[in-house]
Amino acid sequence: MESDHNFFTGFSENISEGGLFVATHQLQDIGTDLVLEFSVPDRATPIRATCRVRWVRLYRESSDAPPGMGVEFIDLDGHDAADISRFVTRRAPLFWD
User: Fold this and answer.
1) Do residues 24 and 70 touch, judged by C-beta distance below 8 A?
2) Among 3, 87, 91, 93, which is least packed by CB within 10 angstroms?
C-alpha cells in the first residue's frame, strides 16, 4: 500500500468486485486514498488500484478478527476489474452450510 507519504504492507483478505479488506496494524484514516498492489491467481502481473479507506477495525485482544481496513476500489482499469470479477466468481465461497 502507498499513501502520499508512506509505504505500508499488509495481507489482503475478503476481496470483492468493489474492494477488499487489508489486514494490517498500520491503519489509515477513513477517507484516505491509497494505491494498492496485489495479485490474483492466473494473472502474471499484479493489479495496481487506487482505493479509499471506507472503514477500519482496531486490534482487540479479545477478538480473533485481525485489525485492518476495508477499502473501496475508486480507480480500477477495465482489464483489472474483469480479472478480479473472474477470480471472485470462481473462488470457493467463504462460508457454507
Assistant:
1) no
2) 93
- Sorted by where each starts, the structural domains of the chain and their CATH numbers stand as 11-90 (2.40.10.220)
Per-residue pLDDT tens digits for 45-65: 999 999 999 999 998 888 888
Cell of 60: 482487540
Nine cell digits for residue 40: 490474483
Give the distance, in angstroms, between the CA of residue 3 and the centroid of all CA atoms in the same chain: 14
pLDDT digits (tens, 9 = 90+) for 71-81: 999 989 899 99
In the block, cell 499484479 appears at 46
- Write the DSSP assignment of 13-72 as a string of letters: ES--SSEEEEE-SS---TT-EEEEEE--TT-SS-EEEEEEEEEEE---TT-SSPPEEEEE
Identify whether the C-beta of residue 42 lies closer than 8 Å to the C-beta of residue 93.
Answer: no
